[in-house]
Design brief:
The protein has six helices and eleven strands. The protein is α/β, with parallel strands linked by helices. The chain starts with a strand and ends with a helix.
């Protein structure tokens, strides 16, 4: 699946991390070159393009002509609407999804602006990804049918057995990898020595484990 994400802020980079880890072809566009350099240093699994996604030429260079999905996650509703309209009307992208930053603007995010699905800013990350890929699973489990894997989300609480432990200390189910940890709003690609802390949001990719099996390990 070819995914184009406009906006490399916290949400956009998290989505890129999840979908890229699940072996989708992901391109992340942002006009903040410093932010893109930071993501490149973190080796986020996405192609990074500098530019204003409200410009048709930038979207075209980023691959809008062949994208299966465009996700607008900038911090400005006006920009997200323009990006969606261009994606749908000029590039005929099949699936266009947008983040709504201000609930008062929710009424604008419909087919008139090329929006197939809109998600409020307060909604969890997985909800936005579910809307993007038209998944039907609920709670924190997203099935990426084309990739043949599940992305499972679990949050480390103060009472979780994972607090203070490393990935190597935990009996992670076979065929399951820790793809990313969201800490203090920023995605982290964990190394074996990484220690979990309360409040960490853990995203795992698995082709075999169930959500309950994963939660049993971390909770």
């Amino acid at each position: 699946m070819k995914v184009l994400i406009a906006g490399a802020g916290r949400l956009g980079s998290q989505i890129a991390q999840v979908l890229g880890t699940a072996r989708n072809d992901v391109t992340l566009v942002d006009r903040d070159d410093e932010r893109l350099r930071e993501l490149a240093e973190r080796k986020i699994p996405a192609r990074l393009e500098e530019g204003d996604a409200c410009e048709p030429s930038v979207l075209e260079t980023a691959g809008a002509l062949t994208a299966d999905i465009v996700i607008a996650t900038t911090g400005e509703d006006e920009d997200n609407l323009v990006i969606c309209l261009l994606a749908k009307r000029q590039f005929a992208v099949e699936r266009v999804v947008a983040r709504i930053n201000d609930d008062d603007n929710a009424w604008l995010f419909d087919e008139r602006w090329g929006v197939d699905a809109a998600v409020p800013a307060a909604a969890p990350l997985i909800s936005l990804i579910e809307e993007a890929v038209s998944a039907t699973d609920t709670v924190a489990l997203l099935r990426l049918s084309k990739a043949g894997v599940n992305v499972i989300e679990t949050t480390i609480s103060a009472r979780s057995r994972a607090v203070g432990r490393t990935i190597g200390d935990l009996a992670v189910p076979e065929g399951t990898v820790v793809a990313a940890v969201i800490r203090d709003g920023s995605p982290v690609a964990p190394v074996p020595a990484f220690r979990f802390a309360a409040g960490d949001e853990v995203l795992l990719v698995s082709h075999a484990a169930s959500e309950s099996e994963v939660h049993a390990v971390f909770q």
